[in-house]
Protein backbone atom coordinates (compact mmCIF):
# COMPACT_ATOMS: atom_id res chain seq x y z
CA UNK A 1 0.00 0.00 0.00
CA UNK A 2 1.24 3.50 -0.74
CA UNK A 3 2.30 5.27 2.43
CA UNK A 4 -0.08 8.24 2.20
CA UNK A 5 -2.95 6.75 0.24
CA UNK A 6 -5.89 4.60 1.28
CA UNK A 7 -6.89 1.48 -0.63
CA UNK A 8 -10.67 1.82 -0.74
CA UNK A 9 -12.72 -1.37 -0.48
CA UNK A 10 -15.70 -1.00 -2.82
CA UNK A 11 -18.91 -2.77 -1.72
CA UNK A 12 -21.28 -3.31 -4.62
CA UNK A 13 -24.94 -2.36 -4.33
CA UNK A 14 -25.97 -5.71 -5.81
CA UNK A 15 -23.60 -8.67 -5.22
CA UNK A 16 -24.60 -10.11 -8.59
CA UNK A 17 -23.62 -6.95 -10.46
CA UNK A 18 -20.12 -5.48 -9.92
CA UNK A 19 -21.23 -1.84 -9.91
CA UNK A 20 -21.41 0.72 -7.12
CA UNK A 21 -23.70 3.69 -7.72
CA UNK A 22 -23.73 6.70 -5.41
CA UNK A 23 -26.23 9.52 -5.95
CA UNK A 24 -25.87 12.08 -3.18
CA UNK A 25 -25.96 15.74 -2.22
CA UNK A 26 -23.26 17.57 -0.27
CA UNK A 27 -23.46 20.83 1.63
CA UNK A 28 -20.63 23.08 2.70
CA UNK A 29 -16.90 22.84 2.16
CA UNK A 30 -15.03 19.57 2.45
CA UNK A 31 -12.31 17.31 1.08
CA UNK A 32 -11.43 13.63 1.10
CA UNK A 33 -8.09 11.79 1.56
CA UNK A 34 -5.91 10.41 -1.19
CA UNK A 35 -7.26 6.97 -2.09
CA UNK A 36 -7.38 4.42 -4.89
CA UNK A 37 -9.37 1.30 -5.80
CA UNK A 38 -9.42 -1.46 -8.41
CA UNK A 39 -12.61 -0.16 -9.98
CA UNK A 40 -12.78 2.37 -12.80
CA UNK A 41 -14.65 5.47 -11.60
CA UNK A 42 -16.88 7.98 -13.38
CA UNK A 43 -18.17 11.14 -11.70
CA UNK A 44 -20.83 13.49 -13.01
CA UNK A 45 -22.13 16.69 -11.45
CA UNK A 46 -25.86 17.38 -11.43
CA UNK A 47 -25.67 20.62 -9.46
CA UNK A 48 -22.86 22.79 -8.07
CA UNK A 49 -19.08 22.45 -8.49
CA UNK A 50 -16.46 19.91 -7.50
CA UNK A 51 -12.69 19.40 -7.89
CA UNK A 52 -10.83 16.11 -8.34
CA UNK A 53 -7.05 15.89 -8.03
CA UNK A 54 -4.80 13.15 -9.41
CA UNK A 55 -1.01 12.93 -9.43
CA UNK A 56 -1.01 14.87 -12.71
CA UNK A 57 -4.28 16.80 -12.97
CA UNK A 58 -6.64 19.16 -11.21
CA UNK A 59 -10.08 18.57 -12.73
CA UNK A 60 -12.70 21.19 -11.96
CA UNK A 61 -16.25 20.07 -12.65
CA UNK A 62 -19.51 22.00 -12.88
CA UNK A 63 -23.09 20.89 -13.53
CA UNK A 64 -23.24 18.65 -16.60
CA UNK A 65 -19.53 17.72 -16.53
CA UNK A 66 -18.11 14.20 -16.41
CA UNK A 67 -14.70 12.93 -15.23
CA UNK A 68 -13.02 9.51 -15.30
CA UNK A 69 -10.47 8.04 -12.89
CA UNK A 70 -8.66 4.81 -13.72
CA UNK A 71 -8.21 1.58 -11.83
CA UNK A 72 -5.59 1.89 -9.05
CA UNK A 73 -5.12 5.60 -9.83
CA UNK A 74 -4.63 7.71 -6.65
CA UNK A 75 -6.95 10.71 -6.35
CA UNK A 76 -8.77 12.94 -3.90
CA UNK A 77 -11.61 15.47 -4.07
CA UNK A 78 -12.36 18.96 -2.79
CA UNK A 79 -15.65 20.80 -2.60
CA UNK A 80 -16.03 24.51 -1.94
CA UNK A 81 -18.89 26.02 0.07
CA UNK A 82 -22.38 25.60 -1.38
CA UNK A 83 -24.70 22.79 -2.39
CA UNK A 84 -23.73 20.02 -4.78
CA UNK A 85 -25.49 16.99 -6.24
CA UNK A 86 -23.41 14.31 -7.94
CA UNK A 87 -23.38 10.71 -9.17
CA UNK A 88 -20.42 8.35 -8.80
CA UNK A 89 -20.25 5.15 -10.86
CA UNK A 90 -17.59 2.58 -9.91
CA UNK A 91 -17.25 -0.77 -11.66
CA UNK A 92 -14.81 -3.59 -12.32
CA UNK A 93 -14.47 -3.54 -16.08
CA UNK A 94 -13.04 -7.09 -16.15
CA UNK A 95 -16.45 -8.38 -15.16
CA UNK A 96 -18.14 -6.54 -18.02
CA UNK A 97 -15.78 -7.84 -20.67
CA UNK A 98 -16.72 -11.16 -22.27
CA UNK A 99 -14.28 -13.55 -23.96
CA UNK A 100 -14.78 -12.03 -27.41
CA UNK A 101 -13.94 -8.52 -26.11
CA UNK A 102 -10.94 -9.45 -24.01
CA UNK A 103 -8.45 -7.62 -26.24
CA UNK A 104 -9.91 -4.33 -24.99
CA UNK A 105 -9.69 -5.13 -21.30
CA UNK A 106 -6.04 -4.24 -20.63
CA UNK A 107 -6.55 -0.63 -21.65
CA UNK A 108 -8.82 -0.09 -18.68
CA UNK A 109 -7.18 -2.36 -16.09
CA UNK A 110 -3.42 -2.32 -16.57
CA UNK A 111 -1.55 -1.20 -13.46
CA UNK A 112 -0.06 2.26 -13.86
CA UNK A 113 -2.24 3.35 -16.79
CA UNK A 114 -3.46 6.84 -15.89
CA UNK A 115 -6.95 6.88 -17.36
CA UNK A 116 -7.52 10.35 -15.94
CA UNK A 117 -5.65 11.48 -19.04
CA UNK A 118 -8.79 10.52 -20.97
CA UNK A 119 -10.51 13.57 -19.51
CA UNK A 120 -9.14 15.56 -22.45
CA UNK A 121 -11.91 13.88 -24.44
CA UNK A 122 -14.66 15.72 -22.56
CA UNK A 123 -13.06 19.10 -23.28
CA UNK A 124 -12.36 18.41 -26.96
CA UNK A 125 -15.65 16.62 -27.68
CA UNK A 126 -18.57 18.08 -25.70
CA UNK A 127 -20.93 15.64 -27.43
CA UNK A 128 -19.07 12.75 -25.79
CA UNK A 129 -19.38 14.43 -22.38
CA UNK A 130 -23.11 14.89 -23.00
CA UNK A 131 -23.64 11.26 -24.04
CA UNK A 132 -21.77 9.77 -21.09
CA UNK A 133 -23.51 12.21 -18.72
CA UNK A 134 -26.88 10.91 -19.98
CA UNK A 135 -25.76 7.29 -19.63
CA UNK A 136 -24.64 7.82 -16.01
CA UNK A 137 -27.88 9.59 -15.07
CA UNK A 138 -29.84 6.77 -16.71
CA UNK A 139 -27.82 4.14 -14.81
CA UNK A 140 -28.57 5.92 -11.52
CA UNK A 141 -32.26 6.06 -12.43
CA UNK A 142 -32.39 2.36 -13.35
CA UNK A 143 -30.67 1.47 -10.10
CA UNK A 144 -33.01 3.61 -8.02
CA UNK A 145 -36.24 2.33 -9.65
CA UNK A 146 -35.16 -1.31 -9.95
CA UNK A 147 -37.77 -2.17 -12.55
CA UNK A 148 -37.74 -5.60 -14.12
CA UNK A 149 -34.57 -6.02 -16.18
CA UNK A 150 -32.76 -3.06 -14.63
CA UNK A 151 -29.57 -5.15 -14.37
CA UNK A 152 -29.62 -5.66 -18.15
CA UNK A 153 -30.14 -1.94 -18.70
CA UNK A 154 -27.17 -1.02 -16.48
CA UNK A 155 -24.97 -3.62 -18.16
CA UNK A 156 -25.88 -2.27 -21.60
CA UNK A 157 -25.26 1.35 -20.61
CA UNK A 158 -21.81 0.56 -19.21
CA UNK A 159 -20.93 -1.10 -22.51
CA UNK A 160 -22.01 2.09 -24.29
CA UNK A 161 -19.73 4.14 -22.06
CA UNK A 162 -16.78 1.85 -22.82
CA UNK A 163 -17.53 2.13 -26.54
CA UNK A 164 -17.60 5.95 -26.36
CA UNK A 165 -14.13 5.97 -24.84
CA UNK A 166 -12.71 3.58 -27.42
CA UNK A 167 -14.19 5.36 -30.45
CA UNK A 168 -13.38 8.92 -29.36
CA UNK A 169 -9.84 8.52 -28.09
CA UNK A 170 -8.12 10.70 -30.71
CA UNK A 171 -4.88 10.71 -28.66
CA UNK A 172 -4.65 6.91 -28.94
CA UNK A 173 -4.36 6.33 -25.20
CA UNK A 174 -6.51 3.25 -25.72
CA UNK A 175 -4.72 1.69 -28.68
CA UNK A 176 -6.15 -1.73 -29.49
CA UNK A 177 -4.02 -4.85 -29.06
CA UNK A 178 -2.45 -6.43 -32.08
CA UNK A 179 -4.79 -9.19 -33.22
CA UNK A 180 -1.72 -11.36 -33.86
CA UNK A 181 -0.69 -11.13 -30.19
CA UNK A 182 -4.15 -12.13 -29.02
CA UNK A 183 -4.42 -14.94 -31.55
CA UNK A 184 -1.23 -16.44 -30.14
CA UNK A 185 -2.93 -16.71 -26.76
CA UNK A 186 -6.15 -18.32 -28.01
CA UNK A 187 -4.94 -21.90 -27.29
CA UNK A 188 -4.14 -20.77 -23.73
CA UNK A 189 -7.55 -19.15 -23.25
CA UNK A 190 -9.22 -22.30 -24.56
CA UNK A 191 -7.12 -24.41 -22.17
CA UNK A 192 -8.34 -22.28 -19.25
CA UNK A 193 -12.00 -22.52 -20.34
CA UNK A 194 -11.89 -26.30 -20.77
CA UNK A 195 -10.12 -26.91 -17.45
CA UNK A 196 -11.74 -24.27 -15.27
CA UNK A 197 -12.95 -26.97 -12.86
CA UNK A 198 -9.43 -28.39 -12.45
CA UNK A 199 -6.03 -27.21 -11.31
CA UNK A 200 -4.61 -24.85 -13.92
CA UNK A 201 -0.90 -23.99 -13.96
CA UNK A 202 1.08 -21.38 -15.83
CA UNK A 203 3.70 -24.03 -16.64
CA UNK A 204 1.10 -26.07 -18.52
CA UNK A 205 -0.37 -22.99 -20.20
CA UNK A 206 3.04 -21.88 -21.49
CA UNK A 207 3.46 -25.22 -23.27
CA UNK A 208 0.42 -24.51 -25.46
CA UNK A 209 2.31 -21.78 -27.29
CA UNK A 210 5.84 -23.14 -26.68
CA UNK A 211 6.93 -20.17 -24.56
CA UNK A 212 9.39 -20.08 -21.71
CA UNK A 213 7.61 -19.94 -18.33
CA UNK A 214 8.96 -16.50 -17.34
CA UNK A 215 8.54 -14.94 -20.78
CA UNK A 216 5.01 -16.32 -20.98
CA UNK A 217 4.06 -14.61 -17.72
CA UNK A 218 5.25 -11.23 -18.99
CA UNK A 219 3.67 -11.74 -22.41
CA UNK A 220 0.28 -12.72 -20.96
CA UNK A 221 0.21 -9.68 -18.66
CA UNK A 222 1.16 -7.35 -21.54
CA UNK A 223 -1.53 -8.66 -23.91
CA UNK A 224 -4.39 -9.33 -21.44
CA UNK A 225 -3.68 -6.70 -18.80
CA UNK A 226 -3.84 -9.13 -15.86
CA UNK A 227 -1.43 -11.76 -14.63
CA UNK A 228 -2.19 -15.34 -15.59
CA UNK A 229 -3.07 -16.16 -11.98
CA UNK A 230 -5.46 -13.19 -11.73
CA UNK A 231 -7.13 -14.16 -14.99
CA UNK A 232 -7.61 -17.81 -13.96
CA UNK A 233 -8.83 -16.95 -10.47
CA UNK A 234 -11.36 -14.47 -11.82
CA UNK A 235 -12.67 -17.07 -14.25
CA UNK A 236 -12.99 -19.58 -11.41
CA UNK A 237 -14.82 -17.05 -9.24
CA UNK A 238 -17.43 -16.53 -11.96
CA UNK A 239 -18.12 -20.28 -11.89
CA UNK A 240 -18.17 -20.36 -8.09
CA UNK A 241 -20.78 -17.58 -8.00
CA UNK A 242 -23.05 -19.60 -10.27
CA UNK A 243 -22.58 -22.74 -8.17
CA UNK A 244 -23.25 -20.94 -4.87
CA UNK A 245 -26.50 -19.47 -6.18
CA UNK A 246 -27.88 -22.45 -8.08
CA UNK A 247 -26.78 -25.54 -6.16
CA UNK A 248 -27.29 -26.70 -2.60
CA UNK A 249 -23.62 -27.25 -1.80
CA UNK A 250 -21.24 -26.25 0.96
CA UNK A 251 -18.57 -23.59 0.46
CA UNK A 252 -15.92 -26.32 0.43
CA UNK A 253 -17.79 -28.29 -2.22
CA UNK A 254 -18.06 -25.15 -4.36
CA UNK A 255 -14.30 -24.58 -4.02
CA UNK A 256 -13.50 -28.18 -4.94
CA UNK A 257 -15.80 -27.97 -7.98
CA UNK A 258 -13.51 -25.33 -9.52
CA UNK A 259 -10.27 -27.11 -8.63
CA UNK A 260 -9.36 -25.07 -5.53
CA UNK A 261 -8.85 -27.56 -2.65
CA UNK A 262 -6.76 -25.11 -0.61
CA UNK A 263 -9.47 -23.24 1.30
CA UNK A 264 -7.17 -20.45 2.46
CA UNK A 265 -6.28 -19.65 -1.16
CA UNK A 266 -9.91 -20.00 -2.19
CA UNK A 267 -11.18 -17.55 0.44
CA UNK A 268 -8.42 -15.09 -0.44
CA UNK A 269 -9.26 -15.25 -4.16
CA UNK A 270 -12.98 -14.90 -3.50
CA UNK A 271 -12.51 -11.87 -1.25
CA UNK A 272 -10.25 -10.21 -3.82
CA UNK A 273 -12.93 -10.72 -6.45
CA UNK A 274 -16.08 -9.93 -4.44
CA UNK A 275 -14.91 -7.95 -1.40
CA UNK A 276 -16.81 -10.38 0.84
CA UNK A 277 -16.79 -14.00 1.95
CA UNK A 278 -18.58 -16.72 -0.09
CA UNK A 279 -21.20 -17.02 2.68
CA UNK A 280 -21.86 -13.26 2.71
CA UNK A 281 -22.12 -13.28 -1.08
CA UNK A 282 -24.65 -16.09 -1.08
CA UNK A 283 -26.70 -14.57 1.77
CA UNK A 284 -26.79 -11.11 0.20
CA UNK A 285 -27.63 -12.44 -3.25
CA UNK A 286 -30.38 -14.81 -2.21
CA UNK A 287 -31.98 -12.41 0.26
CA UNK A 288 -31.84 -9.23 -1.81
CA UNK A 289 -35.03 -7.31 -2.58
CA UNK A 290 -36.86 -8.42 -5.71
CA UNK A 291 -37.11 -5.64 -8.36
CA UNK A 292 -40.47 -3.91 -8.64
Q: Ranges with pLDDT <50 over ≥5 residues? A: none
Q: Residue-averaged pLDDT, rounded?
A: 85
Question: Beta-sheet strand percentage?
Answer: 15-25%
Radius of gyration: 20 Å
- Topology pattern, helix = H, strand = E: EEEEEEEEEEHHHHHHHHHHH
Number of helices: 11
| Secondary structural class | alpha+beta
| CATH homology superfamily of the largest domain | Jelly Rolls
Give the overall silhouette. globular
Distance between the termini: 42 Å
Counting structural domains, the number is 2
Percentage of residues in helical conformation: 40-55%
> In CATH's first tier, which class of the largest domain applies?
Mainly Beta
Strand order of the largest sheet: 2-10-5-8
Using the 3D structure, state the CATH architecture of the largest domain: Sandwich
Stated plainly, the CATH topology of the largest domain is called Jelly Rolls
Write up what this structure looks like.
With 292 residues, this protein is of the alpha+beta class. It folds into two domains: 6-167, Jelly Rolls (Sandwich), CATH 2.60.120.10; 179-286, Orthogonal Bundle (Arc Repressor Mutant, subunit A). The protein is 44% helix and 18% strand. It has eleven helices and ten strands. Helix 3 (126-145) packs antiparallel against helix 4 (150-167). The longest helix is centred in the middle third of the chain and has 20 residues, at 126-145. The chain is globular, with a radius of gyration of 20 Å. The model has no long low-confidence stretch (mean pLDDT 85).
